[in-house]
Amino acid sequence: MDFVIEKLKHKDWEQVSKIYREGINTGNATFEVNMPSWESWVSKHLSCCNIVARRGDKIVGWAAISPTSSRAVYSGVVEVSVYVNEEFKRTGVGLALLKELIKLSENNGIWTLQAGIFPENKASIHLHKKCGFRIVGIREKIGKMDDIWRDVVLMERRSEKVI
Predict the structure, then answer these.
(1) How far is CA 146 from CA 18, 32, 143, 158, in A?
(2) What's the rounded Cα separation, in Å, for the pair 85 and 14?
(3) What pTM value is reported for the model?
(4) Which of 18, 45, 130, 134 has the most crowded Cβ, counting Cβ within 10 A?
(5) Half-sphere exposure of 32 (CA within 13 A, CB side)
(6) pLDDT of the chain, 163 residues: tens digit per residue
(7) What's the CA gap between 1 and 42, in Å, rounded?
(8) Strand, helix or coil at 73?
(9) CB burial string 57-66: b at 16+ within 10 A, e below
(10) Distance (Å, rounded) from C-alpha 137 to C-alpha 116?
């Protein structure tokens, strides 16, 4: 599949939010239920590492990182998000996005990437393992969706470049 990875821009938000909505609708991608505005979303993510996979004029996936804490000691610890358009799953888009996110994060001094993934989302767990993430534990009954407690698999990847 031919696509390029580029920095996410405001003009991409309409397509990015549609892919995000697909993930929300699965019930196994995020605890988020409401689509945030561009302003809200961008304020919670680090602009150095917000990227899209583009095939022509179509965004086929996106990835981003957000800080896990405002404390200085955790400035190099972030949470990753990777979303792929339903039509383009299992085509290498997610893998390419996550690999690029790792590279960009290390270039920006980030030493630990974390991911919180629902156990039912086996494809995402597999993708993260493929990119060097390891399971560090299960956060049991960490949040409710539709009045049902959900667990989250906590995964992390420690950079070997940023020490």
Answers:
(1) 22, 12, 10, 34
(2) 13
(3) 0.94
(4) 45
(5) 17
(6) 699 999 999 999 999 999 999 999 999 999 999 999 999 999 999 999 999 999 999 999 999 999 999 999 999 999 999 999 999 999 999 999 999 999 999 999 999 999 999 999 999 999 999 999 999 999 999 999 999 999 999 999 999 999 8
(7) 28
(8) helix
(9) eebbbbbbbb
(10) 10
Residue type, 50: N
| Cβ atoms of 73 and 106 closer than 8 Å | no
Q: Tokens 């892919």 correspond to what residue?
A: 19
Question: Position 21: which residue type?
Answer: R
Residue showing tokens 């420690």: 158
The label of the residue with tokens 């070997």 reads 160
Question: Exposure of 98 by Cβ count < 10 A (0-12 exposed, 13-18 middle, 19+ buried)?
Answer: buried
